[in-house]
Amino acid sequence: MQAKIDFRPIILAGGKGTRFWPLSRSAQPKQVLVLDGERSMIQQTVDRLAALADSQSFWIVTNSLLSKTIKNQVDWLPAEQILSEPVGRNTAPAAGLAAFLIEREAPDAVLGMFPADHVIGNEPAFLRILSHAIQIAAAGENMVVLGIEPTRPETGYGYIETGTTMEDGSVRVRRFTEKPDLALAKDFLAAGNYNWNSGMFIWSARTLANAIREHLPNTAPLLEAIAAAFGTPEFDSVFAELYPQCENVSIDVAVLEPRSAKGEELSNLFCLKSNFGWNDLGSWTTLYDHTLAKGLHSDDDDNVVQTAGSLAINASGNYVYSPKKFVALVGVTGLVAVDTDDCILITTQSHAQDVGKVVKHLAAAGKVDAI
User: Fold this and answer.
1) DSSP for 322-337?
2) Residues of the chain with pLDDT under 50
3) How far apart are the C-alpha atoms of 225 and 100, rounded to whole Å?
4) What local confidence, expressed as pLDDT, does residue 156 receive?
């Protein structure tokens, strides 16, 4: 009988969700909001992974603004395994710290890295593919990425170019490409061997820790020192002192891109092509598309309206969030309107990706209450 693999989910929950302003704020970003169903995004993430891991196996990396809210929302997880970064340093130090912490006690444990704010439409299919990825990662110094079969020439996602197909159905990774322009995205779609990068990665604690040592030699000793202090009275002070010295870089740029440069036969990078209803809900437009596809809060003219009451006259394809007010839509198409107690956003579906620029402007102007 095959021994059960020690699987430990690592949930990254430190993002600000600026493209969901004004509903998403620094202390209430999208990962702790209820945007899809009745559970917050991070609660849904933990819920689906609980099928493969017990509560003692989870680690969450977040920040001090969110840690209390997250601890309340997932109060069945060990509080000491919800880590609050003293400063944001992107995904490589966050995932690397978890790897060094777990490597000390269980180097063969398989870690899954998951953003806290993704939607999975078909959870049984997701769990089947994830289980396969866990088996590949446990079999050696392998790194597995869940690739999403593209449906359009999307410029908002990174891409994975794949090569040789293996006997188990996985494919070797040739390279990672950051968000392309539209012409290149169309070429990727036509080529047929490119997948969207979901940001979900699976590897053993030892494999990831060694990759950090190889590709981030200045950051690795800092993370190891922080991990060594875990569980001691000095942990908070060591964390606060050393973590800001870590490089501010994503795991894709820090590890996956240089690893793929070794060539598909030497990198031990594998992709599992997936189609389980994935959506990263990256903007108001993607939330509109997702909500409309589920048939929620929508009318016959494809307006998605979450209000205290509404009327649409010659209006179509709009998204409106104003839960306390009656809203009338007259002769408008493709708008996004979001009304909160202190701010109102009005944009279009085609410009919703630019909402993050508003947050940068407010921050530069010192209007911290609005962000």
Assistant:
1) EEEEEEEEES-BSEEE
2) 1
3) 9
4) 84
